[in-house]
Amino acid sequence: MSAPEDEKYPRKILGYMEGFLISKTLFAACELGVFDHLEASERPLSAAEVAQALDTSEDGTQRLLSACAGLELLVVQQCNDQVVYSNTGLSSRYLTRSGPQSLYHSIQYNSKTIYLCWHYLTDAVREGRNQYEKAFGVSSKDLFEALYRSDEEMVKFMHLMNSIWNICGKDVVTAFDLSSFKIIYDLGGCSGALAKQCTLAYPGSSVTIFDLPKVVQMSREHFVSAEDKRISFHEGDFFKDKLPEADLYILARILHDWTDDRSLELLAKVYQSCRPGGGVLLVEALLHEDGSGPLTAQLYSLNMLVQTEGRERRASEYTSLLTAAGFTSIQVQRTGKLYDAILARR
Ligand SMILES: C[S@@+](CC[C@H](N)C(=O)[O-])C[C@H]1O[C@@H](n2cnc3c(N)ncnc32)[C@H](O)[C@@H]1O
């Protein structure tokens, strides 16, 4: 019997083996400002023109632009015997620094931080723990002290968190009708991007961003406009401090940072502070119950191993944690995008 077609030529494996070449091409083009420069230009540009403007080698730039064209991130045209390049609609929208849905900062963080941690993935699997010490020489036992090892790193992380909610924040805050919850606390609310989506979707509600003092200061300074009267701030440590009373607590990408024990500790505190009839909204990338996917959540779970103390979980695992903390009426909504939502009631 002859081998199946995909065994005669290992196209899939070759693609996986060389997948990092694609990521690095994207990282380099963003870092060098290729998409920003082409966006600012009134006409398509040759590699020589781009190289001159970016102060890069002509040969290297030509190869980079060509690879970006191959990845369908640039449009390539022949014009008077010259090859010239311009942005695709996708690149203009997501890869330039200033676009409203820019992924530029996410790409930077992937390039400068996550990629370095993933260099030690094999060690992380062997040891079952994050690799901050090897990747960055940080030995702090406190996860967020390591993550926020400088103000610059903290702002970069906040930009990473921010950019995803510009793309799929609306999907998670509207996965359930939250309009009956008037006082909302976004625990670990970071840059406030999800809080903004919440106030847009629910004009009758106010949202308070609860986060570590330094994060709140940065959020005030760099991310949330003072004119946004329905968003306020509360500095605190959700493990150590008493949580303020509220109708709804949002925990978006919080529990995936922590072990089951710490997650339960936090959910039990939320339950204690929650008004009767109030609730908690978990926003996480849910794994399928049978382990079959989604691939993004499976890879994110490895990312949690390399970078945090936590993991991505199945809906049933979150349900068990919520039930153990005292919550009932647990509902799960998959959004079909990166993150899903679970609503539970006190
Ligand atoms: C993975 S980020 C998620 C941010 C945000 N919820 C989002 O989805 O974009 C985790 C957040 O929890 C905050 N955080 C971590 N430990 C905390 C603590 N002990 N008390 C309050 N906030 C904390 C971090 O500063 C960060 O903003």
UniProtKB/TrEMBL annotation:
Alphabetized UniProt keyword annotations: Melatonin biosynthesis, Methyltransferase, S-adenosyl-L-methionine, Transferase
Main enzyme class: transferase
Biological processes per GO annotation: melatonin biosynthetic process; methylation
Domain O-methyltransferase C-terminal, first and last residues per copy: 118-327
Annotated active site: H256 (proton acceptor)
Domain of life: Eukaryota
InterPro entries in UniProt: COMT-like (IPR016461), COMT_C (IPR001077), COMT_dimerisation (IPR012967), SAM-dependent_MTases_sf (IPR029063), WH-like_DNA-bd_sf (IPR036388), WH_DNA-bd_sf (IPR036390)
Pfam families: Dimerisation, Methyltransf_2
EC assignment: 2.1.1.4
GO molecular function: acetylserotonin O-methyltransferase activity; protein dimerization activity
Residue span, O-methyltransferase dimerisation domain: 15-96
Keyword S-adenosyl-L-methionine: yes
Gene3D superfamilies xrefs: Vaccinia Virus protein VP39 (3.40.50.150), Winged helix-like DNA-binding domain superfamily/Winged helix DNA-binding domain (1.10.10.10)
Keyword Lipoprotein applies: no
Pathway entry: Aromatic compound metabolism; melatonin biosynthesis; melatonin from serotonin: step 1/2
Assembly mode: Homodimer.
Function according to Swiss-Prot or TrEMBL: Catalyzes the transfer of a methyl group onto N-acetylserotonin, producing melatonin (N-acetyl-5-methoxytryptamine).
Descriptive protein name: Acetylserotonin O-methyltransferase
Annotated source species: Clupea harengus (Atlantic herring)
